[in-house]
Amino acid sequence: MTFRLSVALLATALFALPSGADARVGGQDAAACIDGDGPAIQANITGLKDRTGRVKLELYPANEQDFLESDTNLLAAGKTFHRVWATMPATGAVAICIKVPKPGRYGLFFTHDRDGKNKFNFWRDGGGVPSNIRIGAARPKLSTATIEVGAGVTVTNIRAQYLRGLSGLGPIKSDD
Question: How confident is the model at residue 1 (pLDDT cuts 50, 70, 90)?
Fold first, then answer.
């Protein structure tokens, strides 16, 4: 019985990891995804412009007024907010793990901080949402960033988007 359970957990963990010889999950919450200790979200990131800077996931309440609101305001009001940074790996798949307070619906936003200034630079940095709908020139809507998180590790794939002329943010690569 224990052996069967261990094999099942191992198989689940292996399928949750991104592919590649040097695939690893990054961020200070990585252990939650690696160990299957949810609730947590593992975001597999594709379409990166380059390997500069670092990557970040931010977790918000699933309502329009709080989505992308200042972390200071959210935390002061006792609302859900969590941020995870990860070092950009030189090669291989990019995956980031973020712990979630409890199962439910959340807003999730990914950024690629290419210039290392810790503030989103529309001209240089990239972003993405779980729906992978083109962000464009406007602030992303919650409906494009909503993710339903279960008791375990919820896996999502986010395609990075960068400035694409006058049309705003969009994917730059057709495949990885």
Answer: very low
* Residue 125 lies inside a defined structural domain of this protein: yes
As for how many domains the chain has, the answer is 1
**Residue with the two structure tokens 């099942």:** 8
Torsion of CA 11, 15, 36, 106, to 10 degrees: -150
pLDDT of 5: 39
Quick check: 105 and 62 in contact, CB under 8 A?
yes
**Rounded CA separation 135/95 (Å):** 21
pLDDT category of residue 17 using cuts at 50, 70 and 90: very low
Q: Please check whether residue 24 lies inside any domain of the structure.
A: no
- CA neighbours closer than 13 Å in the CB half-sphere of residue 125: 19
Tokens of 90: 């030189």
For residues 95, 108, 11, 6, the Cα torsion angle rounded to the nearest 10 degrees is 110
Tell me, yes or no, whether 111 lies in a domain: yes
pTM: 0.84
Q: How many CB atoms lie under 10 A from the CB of residue 15? A: 9
Any idea how long the chain is? 176
